[in-house]
Amino acid sequence: MNFCTLFDAYYIHKGLALYRSLEKVCSDFTLYVMAFDEESFRKLTALALPHMVVENESGPFLTEEIAACKATRKRNEYCWTCGSNVTWYFMTRYGLDHIVYVDADMMFFHDPSPLLKSLEGASVGLSPHFFDNGLYGRYCVQFVFFRNDEAGRSALCWWKNQCLAWCYDRYENGLFGDQAYLDRMPGLFPGVREIEDRGCGVAPWNEEQYRFLLGACIQWEGKRLPVYFFHFHGIGVDLEGERVVLRCKKKHFRRETLREMFVPYGELLREVYERDLGRRVSKVVVKNPTLVRRVVQAGKDLLRNNVLVRKVYFKYLKGHTGYNKKQV
């Protein structure tokens, strides 16, 4: 199985946690990583992980067109722009028969090979949000499959070119970042298949639909389903002294979600800090947001439905919460 992602020194702890989680559940995989700064490239190169291929963003990947985007877009917008471009780069440079783009802030709990098996005969595989958000699109850029055939290459090439032309942290003309483009793929290209398995993409926006069971599974409509991965979007992770602290910034999570998803993620991050980053960890702490923060977030969510407020919010007010401080 071929996966790819991108991250920098601010996100390297999450990227390494992604790798270590795949290592625990997959017998045969390669994670292709585009390191987005020198610190992360040097660290990953020194680790020489057996199932990881690392390239430097400043190398052959950085064409004039991509460099122009880097010079004019915000950091998170540039990273979103590059997701599809990194996927195209690795698939074509290494002649891979397939590739799956994955976000770095995820943890795999089960072998994802059944997801790829469900895509046999498909050229593109898209993972839904499994939540009617009305703003960010039906599909999520978290687990996006492309086969190296004519239809798969055409869809991926179109996506990367669209992102080079427009990819911003705002809602405009039905677009948002790199994500809304995915909604158009089924109508533009043959062989596009929606992943129906609810265990693909359990995340903050849909976790309340499920009951979490022991063994990293969920119960949905009377069925017991494995959680292939949990997407820890918007979850702050940092090392404070000797404590790994996970901060749930935007919503209050149920106790069962914290127990079955967040605590294992915290322990995995402990392993990454100690094994890969050479830091001592004595404790893992998971923090739900305070009542004040929850009230403020609820106000933001309510106001965001107003078109004028949405325009002002995304253009002038929205912060990017993914970065804390460099981890190497």
Record the SSE blueprint.
Blueprint lengths: L1 E6 L4 H14 L4 E6 L2 H10 L4 E5 L7 H9 L2 H19 L4 E5 L3 E3 L4 H5 L6 E3 L16 E5 L2 H16 L5 E2 L2 E2 L4 H8 L3 E3 L5 E3 L8 E3 L3 E4 L2 E4 L2 E3 L3 E6 L2 E6 L6 H22 L6 E5 L3 H13 L3 H11 L11
Parallel strand pairs: 1-2, 1-4, 2-3, 6-10, 11-15, 17-18
Antiparallel strand pairs: 4-7, 5-15, 6-7, 8-9, 12-13, 13-14, 16-17
Helix pairs in contact: 1-8, 4-6, 6-7
Describe the 3D structure.
The relative contact order is 0.14. Strands 3-2-1-4-7-6-10 form a 7-stranded mixed beta sheet, sandwiched between helices. The chain contains 10 helices and 18 strands. Helix content is 39%, strand content 23%. The protein has a domain at 2-200: Spore Coat Polysaccharide Biosynthesis Protein SpsA, Chain A, CATH 3.90.550. It has 328 residues and is of the alpha/beta class. The protein starts with a strand and ends in an 11-residue tail after the last helix. It is globular and about 45 Å long.
